[in-house]
Design brief:
By secondary structure, the chain is α/β, with parallel strands linked by helices. The protein contains 5 helices and 4 strands, in the order βαβααβαβα. Helix 1 crosses helix 3. The chain is globular and about 40 Å long.
């Protein structure tokens, strides 16, 4: 595999995020100037609604959940969005899959038994994520 240099133009940027990092990406895209787009993004276990949080986790997630996102603005800057969900994620309910499809036009994929897509599910690699990213980057 040949590595490419980091993009120097925002239009060449392709984002990959997991969980709360997906919120960061969406809010960054929302703040881009009008008419600016990026190449795309793939989001793993993204959420608008969370479940089974501890009090400390609720304190962290609360501001992200309570602060509205201008979905039309994000969508206008993000021509290609893929989002991955798991049937047994203890935090990200399957309701989020439909929300990402409706609000952002995401192409979604539902995996069995991947939990929150981390070491707790035994994952050490994520070939589907790698393939999606390589395809998007051409």
């Amino acid at each position: 595999m040949r590595l490419r240099r980091c993009p120097t133009r925002i239009e060449d940027a392709y984002y990959v995020g997991h969980s709360i990092g997906c919120q960061t990406i969406l809010r960054h895209l929302e703040q881009l100037p009008p008419g600016v787009t990026v190449r795309g993004a793939v989001l793993v276990a993204p959420w608008f609604v969370l479940s089974n949080l501890s009090a400390d986790e609720e304190a962290i997630a609360g501001p992200w959940i309570d602060t509205p996102i201008d979905f039309a603005r994000v969508r206008s800057r993000l021509p290609e969005l893929t989002a991955y969900f798991s049937t047994d994620d203890p935090f990200v309910s399957l309701e989020n899959q439909g929300l990402f499809e409706q609000r952002l036009g995401a192409h979604t994929r539902l995996f069995e038994g991947r939990k929150h897509f981390g070491v707790e599910s035994g994952m050490t690699t994520f070939p589907e994520l790698f393939a999606t990213t390589l395809t998007a980057l051409g």
